[in-house]
Amino acid sequence: MSGQEITIKSKDGGEFMGYLALPEGGSGPGIVVIQEIFGVNEVMRGLTDEWAAAGYVALCPDLFWRQEPGIQITDQTEEEWARAFELFNGFDLEKGVDDLDATIEHLRGLDACTGKVGSVGFCLGGRLAFLTATRTKVDAAVGYYGVMLEEHVGEDLKAPVLLHIATEDGFVPKENQAKVHAALDGNEKATLFDYQGNDHAFARKGGEHYDEAAANLARDRSQEFFAAHLR
Predict the structure, then answer these.
(1) 24 closest CA partner among 50, 60, 61
(2) 184: which residues sit within 8 A by CB, 6+ positions away?
(3) CATH superfamily of the domain spanning 4-230
(4) Which listed residue (169, 209, 211, 229) is catalytic?
(5) Tens of pLDDT along 101-136?
(6) Is position 200 annotated as part of the catalytic site?
(7) Identified catalytic residue from 106, 152, 164, 200
């Protein structure tokens, strides 16, 4: 299965790319796939294809377009990591949420989309997935090892959210994990799963901390969650 690049209009008059993959049947609920700090690269396109194969109209937007359109780097060299953190540090969170809001509405308006739209994000995208559940009209959200979530857990959840938390996450200290649990464990709209012994990016194929068993478990839980809320 191979997707195509489409153009999405931003709220402030710009345009940015999104990688769109359609399910075999041609239509289904929508899922916005939210990038890590490496852009809409091969890994993110592969994940988008996987969600399409699972029966969803999947769309991965280029959220770094305001800094540099078309970023596609890997996690394999020090130079690429340096560039990735440069992009992360230069990222405008508010504009990013606006661009996701525009992506969600664009996806909802496609003929192939049957109406409901979810979001799934990784790393920076995990943080943004949570914010789609508090600041947009997304119908459900899944966050993988989201960073800096402790800054946002006080926001009102408008949609159900599922969070995959790596207990040994090198980018999310245990005290911050505890803050997220303390704020959300009693919230009926939030479901949190801890992955004991796993580090950040345990679901990134080819990555240093990839764990196939944990990745498959998280994928199955995510699919059950979206099936319950989007279908």
Answers:
(1) 50
(2) 153, 163, 190, 192
(3) Alpha/Beta hydrolase fold, catalytic domain (3.40.50.1820)
(4) 169
(5) 999 999 999 999 998 999 999 999 999 999 999 999
(6) yes
(7) 200
